[in-house]
Design goal:
By secondary structure, this protein is α/β, with parallel strands linked by helices. The chain contains 6 helices and 8 strands; from the N terminus they run αβαβαβαββββαβα. It is globular, with a radius of gyration of 19 Å.
């Protein structure tokens, strides 16, 4: 969480940094790093609650008028330094409703049906570099008009998918192994 807070604080176009939580420990840490904290109600804090409900609650709780929301998830704490400035400039210049980051995937995917593997995005023997490009939402950042959030959308139907191919895009912390990998990448790329 601290990485996301500190990352946001370095940009002059970010007016305020908020953390939404129902945890006293997380609240204390967020305040320690200079974020403003919105106490999230229990009914919006479950593991299966969509992110948009917490964002909507923040917008409905604060007294400021907000035009744009930048979401920096704590589970994706590492971002290339210039990414947000580049993304926000593009978002404003092109007047996008929302922008989110994606990365290309070079894996050969398939399904297992009744014990048989059925290729999805390739033909057996095809080289991975010849695959039709597929992309995944990497979670590095989201920029959305506040009006979209209030209509229960983080990614609008016409959202711009900004391609980011950087090792940080592979980090999504859900397990200790994910955390260890993030720590390794952080130490490897800290001087970039």
């Amino acid at each position: 969480m601290a990485h996301s807070i500190l990352y946001a604080q370095q940009f002059d176009f970010i007016d305020a940094v908020y953390v939404s939580t129902d945890s006293a420990a997380i609240k204390a840490e967020a305040l320690n790093y200079g974020a403003q904290v919105i106490d999230r109600p229990a009914h919006l804090a479950g593991d299966h609650e969509p992110t948009v409900s917490a964002l909507k609650h923040v917008l409905q709780t604060i007294n400021d008028t907000v035009a744009h929301v930048v979401l920096l998830q704590a589970t994706n704490p590492l971002r290339p330094k210039p990414l947000l400035a580049t993304a926000f400039k593009e978002y404003i210049a092109k007047n996008y409703t929302s922008l989110f980051t994606v990365s290309r995937d070079y894996h050969k995917f398939g399904k297992i049906e009744q014990g048989v593997f059925k290729p999805y995005n390739y033909k057996p023997g095809q080289r991975s570099q010849d695959l039709e490009p597929l992309f995944y939402e990497n979670g590095l950042l989201y920029i959305t008009k506040a009006s979209c959030i209030l209509n229960d959308e983080v990614i609008s139907k016409d959202a711009f998918p900004m391609v980011v191919n950087h090792p940080f895009a592979e980090v999504d912390i859900d397990t200790q192994d994910d955390f260890d990998y993030a720590e390794y990448l952080y130490n490897k790329y800290i001087n970039e």
